[in-house]
């Protein structure tokens, strides 16, 4: 019943952790998409005046600067001065405040009026600067509040279409009617965008901040779920300890009590021939039975090596002792920054190494073995490789490999076994790098 409960808790915790990971991925995708939209719009607003001014100036001067440069004076020089003033005006009134995020309503309005004045003057010299006047539409989006933005669109449309249609030079009724219609349609079309932007952009900015906070909360929640997984596994380990305690009480303790009883009886019966020997035989039989039970119980507890050292040192000691006993060259390497892990994970990795080395000694006929423990952020990788005889894939289903897979799966990890006849075998385990769940847990491991 205890084992079933701990498995259920672990299963639910793992499922919840997967849900949180999925929600985090979806949140990141939406946030990245919205940020990309806002970033493109910000860049467009920043660069639009410069691009339009450059295009207008290049087209104008390519026409007024023939080889002799005779047409440059005096209009060309005046236009060059106006273009320079416009560039300085855009730099200090538009570009720098936007980059510093310091554009305020009053300076933005002053810049807009000055920009339209410069555009009207430039258009009086050449219609080419109609292109530059379009920048007024972009800056109108920056005016606060939205009625000022719509008013800015209206003013830009009047200046642009008035110069393009030469309404002021020839104000005929038909031309005025066409002019009013074009200005009205243009203002309505662009003004709607300003109204929508004024209402949605602040919400988008707030939503972006909320998504940032939500992502942080989800990240924290993922950490809590990871702790829940650890606690569920530690709870299962505690259940197993309690089961072993009851089993030891029912077997070893009673066996030892029986041994003591038999030995005491033998002590009292030393004067009766044959009776003492019978008690000693019974005591030996009970001692052997208790030793068998003790060995079986000890196999379910943490390895002795992990009680006196951390996982890297324990694995190094295990590898060196195995190499000395078997006469096979074995090297153990650690990559990354070692971190304390949950006792359940450390025990699993130690047992996997132990079982893999045992399999190498029994079946591989290898001359070299390599053990690598890698700490890679949120995961820990364990690789045991040998240059032995290997095996076909269908043969990799023995009890040892099955036990390895079950151990690693029990701590939320994954095992891959790769082997080719004549080319050796590789056992690779991947487990989450979950820290010890509590101080009490660390105390139990003897650290």
Describe the structure.
Strand 2 and strand 3 form a beta hairpin. Helix 2 (75-99) packs antiparallel against helix 3, helix 6 crosses helix 7 and helix 11 packs antiparallel against helix 12. This protein starts with a helix and ends with a helix. The protein is elongated and about 140 Å long. The chain has helices spanning 2-64, 75-99, 105-125, 130-133, 135-140, 146-165, 173-268, 275-298, 304-308, 311-326, 343-364, 399-410, 439-444, and strands spanning 329-335, 368-376, 379-386, 414-419, 425-432. It has 447 residues and is an alpha+beta fold.
Which features would summarize this protein structure in a list?
5-stranded mixed sheet, Heat Shock Protein 90, elongated, alpha+beta, 5 strands, 13 helices, 447 residues, single chain, disordered N terminus
